[in-house]
Amino acid sequence: MKLWKTILAAAALALAAGASAFAARTDLVIGIPLEPPHLDPTAGAAAAIDEVLYANVFEGLTRIGPNGEVLPDLAESWTISDDGKVYTFKLHSGVKFHDGTDFNADDVKFSLDRARADTSVNAQKGLFAAIDTVEVVDPATVKITLKNPQGSFLYNMGWGDAVIVAPETADTNREKPIGTGPFKFQSWAKGSSITLVKSDTYWGAPVSLDKAEFRIVPDAAAAIPALLSGDVQAIPFLDPDSAAQIKDDPRFKVVIGATEGETILSINNKKPPFDRPQVRQAISYALDRKAIIDGASAGLGVPIGSHMSPASKDYVNLTGRYPHDVAKARELLKEAGFENGIKATLKLPPPSYARLGGEIIASELRDVGIDLEIIPVEWAQWLDQVFTKKDYDLTIVSHTEPNDIDIYSRKDYYFNYDNPAFDKIIADLNLTSDEARRKELLGQAQKILADDAVVGFLYELPKVGVWDAKLQGLWENAPIQANDLTKVKWTD
Amino acid sequence: MQSLLGRRTGQNMTAYLLKRLIIAVLTLVLASMVVFAVLEIIPGDPARLMLGMNASADQVELLRNQMGLNAPLALRYLHWASGLLSLDFGRSYTYSVPVIDLVRERVVVSLPLALIALALSTLIAIPVGLFSAGRHGRAGDTIAMGAAQLGVAVPNFWFALMLIYLFAVWLRLVPAGGFPGWGAGVWPALKSLFLPAIALALPQAAILARVTRSALIEVLNEDYIRTARAKGLPYRTVLWRHALRNAMIPVLTILGLQFAFLLAGTIIIENVFYLPGLGRLVFQAITQRDLIVVESVVMLLVAAVIAVNLLVDLSYAVVDPRLRSRQ
Questions:
Q1: CA–CA dist B34, B38 (Å, integer)
Q2: What is the pTM of this model?
Q3: Residue B159 in contact with partner chain A when CB distance is under 8 A
Q4: What's the complex ipTM?
Q5: Which of A99, A410, B35, B112 is such that its CA lies 20 to 30 A from the CA of A463?
Q6: Using CB atoms within 10 A of its CB, is residue A379 exposed (0-12), middle (13-18) or buried (19+)?
Q7: Who among B56, B157, B175 is closest to A231 (CB)?
Q8: How does pLDDT run across A297-346, given as a tens digit for each residue?
Q9: Domains in chain B: ranges and CATH
């Protein structure tokens, strides 16, 4: 009898243990290459901030979905006035911040007013430039009046820089972020990891993960062993070469998606001889995009012919505008009076697409008589010398901000490009919310940039992610730099 | 007579110490100027770096003001240097917390790591050096020194990766990187320092073994060794008692220098093993142009190296009594 009891107890125990062993995991360790400087998405440009917090801890009126679409978030619905200037947002009710206080329309007004104030250090202050007033109609309704209609307004409100914060915690979010999202911040071991846990008070669909740790793995060479040893189960942003090492391992998935990163050979349009259109066109003819993509990006990446993501609905394929043609390039240079060649510099920031791509481009341009001196620079130097002081001839950089063709119309931007016809199109675009008309204007804008050969358009930067084969729901593409964990779960 | 000699020795010792101390302080002051000047000269604006490419020039200027970057250079140097004197290291630009807090969090990783590595390299190097010197020119010596040559030649980051593949990926004995914190328990924390310490220690051990060996070989050719052997002392005793002690000065010098190399090595090793130590803090701060963090941590490291070299100078006197009484 006693023995019988023991056996039963043992069996029950074994069953229980077996059951728990088969229950899906609810924790996840994600490797990220750079540590965020702080944890406030409304006060810094570092992509690492959004990579941890966007959609997980902080939410906005709208949000950007996995394929770049605008989705409702804290705003349940909205109406737009006929003149396109007044947006009335209906907010979700029963939403709480992680510190227990209620979310309402006052928080929306506070957040947007703070972001566009004179003293604001929001890194994307331009997103809010069209806002004239923000009014609280009632606790669940906000009315935003724009100075002029803005086609991209709902998209803009979905950026990480436009998330809603509470007045009481806005100044301490840098160290201890308090948002309304499905995960709340638990701890930050500086230099090591940031841990989020599931929020019990979340208003929306519950998440599957109980705990998510973002571990900082700075060295690309260390990322693969971290995955192989099981310390880290997902690395959503990995350089293409490292991913190649692991692609045949059935325990992992290598997922190749698209980003919003137009990778370009930027040209200083005011610096002779690059102020001559023939010289810039000669550069475009000299570039062999296929060879550049193979060498700098492990063959991954879609060629572009202007400044627009091939995944965009407004994309026009202009890659045939300047086919790779060395003879044509030499001819153009001769026409411009440079048959004896040109000497110039090429400044390269640290990412591998720039450093590897730079070598290939230098050799391609040497074939047509443009002799480049390669100067490797750090990001801080690049921002200072190239971007701010415009002290450069050529450089390579990926412009990862989504829908950013308007940068070519910005005064004093580092391209030094000035074309009133292009500026006019962008000005019209800002006032247009009709989709068909926008598409037409964006098409014209792309065409002008290609015709002027403002820069050398290379390719759309791929997003290469690697994660455990049993993990589901991580983003394949990167319409914005984020690791949205709301749909992530383990399967068995 | 005896007491007179003792007092003279004491005076010499004090003068020697005082001289060393003055040199140390002067080095610190000079280093602080060089560190500050170099970091101010290198291009890169921390405010622009934080705000990125879409921020306007006005906004960057606003942030520069908030960060106190627009004050004159000399003023900022004096402010920083006087802060250092009162152990106030300033506030990090990027993290906006006191630098001393960052250092405190990181030093509990880097210091144990450096000490374990130093201990390991000494424990490996001295016996190997003794072994080789004892078998000077024979097969054992050739093999040991061949291994040491390899240890000097192999870059430590590559060696670190090999260790990771062997111990973390294949055998799964230790984590591939990261640091759980001392709060997670002494054993898990030590486990994650195990591979980095070996990766740091072995190249150092290789150098130290070679120095120990050559110093010993030189000493073993001295007359007093022959005398000791002639009066019938066993070879082992001669090697340990007489030769090793006399060969210690160059070994100690190298040990002191190695401490500086270890600190520099942690920058690479902490990146490969993503350990949140001082080396990574400096590396990160340089790329983010968190100048105040770089300046303060570099000064701390300079102070540590100077302090260790001071200790080494003192230890000469302990090892070699002649230094204590020399005029």
A1: 6
A2: 0.85
A3: no
A4: 0.79
A5: A410
A6: middle
A7: B175
A8: 989 999 999 999 998 889 999 999 999 999 999 999 999 999 899 999 99
A9: 2-42+87-325 (1.10.3720.10)
